[in-house]
Design a protein that fits this description.
By secondary structure, the chain is mostly helical. It has one domain. Helices cover 67% and strands 5% of the residues. It contains 1 helix and 2 strands; from the N terminus they run ββα. Keywords: Coiled coil.
């Protein structure tokens, strides 16, 4: 069972058209699938950006530690 995009009534998935209002169910599935693909794309894009930020944060932490060691070493050799 699925919900008709035209009238909102429940229709059997084996129907290609709503028996109450005549709206094509096939077009609705294409719209839903495009929306689903877009949502998946946005989620992957968000995850990729998040992973990039995590990697950059780790690199900055590493650089900060190296800089602290360098400064401490320079102060000790004065």
């Amino acid at each position: 069972m699925c919900i008709c995009g035209g009238c909102g009534k429940l229709i059997d998935k084996k129907f290609y058209y709503c028996p109450w209002c005549g709206k094509s169910r096939v077009v609705q599935e294409k719209d839903d699938s495009a929306e689903l693909r877009y949502a998946k794309f946005k989620e992957k894009q968000f995850q990729k950006r998040y992973n990039q930020l995590e990697k950059m944060e780790e690199q900055l932490d590493s650089l900060e530690k190296e800089l602290s060691i360098l400064v401490l070493s320079a102060e000790m050799h004065k």
